[in-house]
Amino acid sequence: MYNCHSHTFNARYVPKKFLAIEMDERAAVIVGRLMKTPVLNKATVAIISRLGPNYRKYAGFLSVGIKKTQDMVFEEMQKAYPKGTRIVALPLNFQFMGAGELDVNYEQQLDDLLQVRAKNPNECLPFVFIDPRMGTAQQNRAFVEKYLNRGFVGIKLYPSLGYYPYDPRLEEVYRFAEEKEVPIMVHCSKGGIFYNGEELEYEHLHPQTFNSKFPPRISGDNKTPRDKFKDNFLQPYNYEAVLDKFPRLKICFAHYGGDSELELQIKNKPNWYAELKDLMKRYENVYVDISYTLHEAKYREKFLNDLSDPVLRNRIMYGTDFFMTLREDNVTERDLYTDTLKHFGNDNFQQIAVTNVEKYLKSPYY
Ligand SMILES: [Zn+2]
Question: How far is the CA of 73 from the centre of ligand 1 (A)?
């Protein structure tokens, strides 16, 4: 079986102000310092727990985040699954999110992840993260190709860090991915991290696009709180510009839009969950994963119902978003796995955790 969505990066790779997005700044500085000390141990987590109930909630999350190496994080996750389970690991480049400098550069994070693959050649399936701001269209394509040739099996995007998916500096990446059937994973929920810089850049408010048939629609301005403005980056319909040009692109929208969108769906209001269903019906290689969102039984129930639709049945994938889920009280990886298996039953689980993921991953690189 597969888990198509997980993270193995740890505190070494995140910028100084990363935690400030979830905690208040003063506490984030303390936690950040603790997490970067050479002695990373349970005592650190105990200190954090004592900061108050808000921090106690993060203790499980932090206990994984402070693991010394990515392979320790990976092994922690493996314990929840039958031997031989294959797990997609998604790195991130935190360099452009407006949260300060990195101590360890992104290439180092990728090299470390490659070591995890070397130790677990059949089980670890790393994706390479690309941000359009890393280079020109040609350079970004070359970057992705280089890492795919070195053992990565897919491409990861995270637009809420401050860019639009129709950015011209991504066009060659898409062209290459479509040609070679390389899977792309994109973050698609209102949760998670986001561009948190003091100022919005010109390109955030006036983006360029490689497909002028779909003019950018931006709402808000420099005064809009960053965690609201980021919704502009994430809109599922941003990908109409992409899929219109690359209709066979294999792309998975992570989290199926997320909790907030399922709530809107329940209230019959417009939402990303419905938009993603629409994209799956219109484009043959659009997928979703149920990671993170699956932690609530009522949302799992909705996903299970979707499996009776013949189109959606082939596009929904099992993933968990380990270890982000550890921020939720009392949710372990093992629970997510066994609860989902029980809820879906063997046939349906086989469909989302094996059949669909295999089809999604299949390319010359895997
Ligand atoms: Zn994730």
Answer: 14
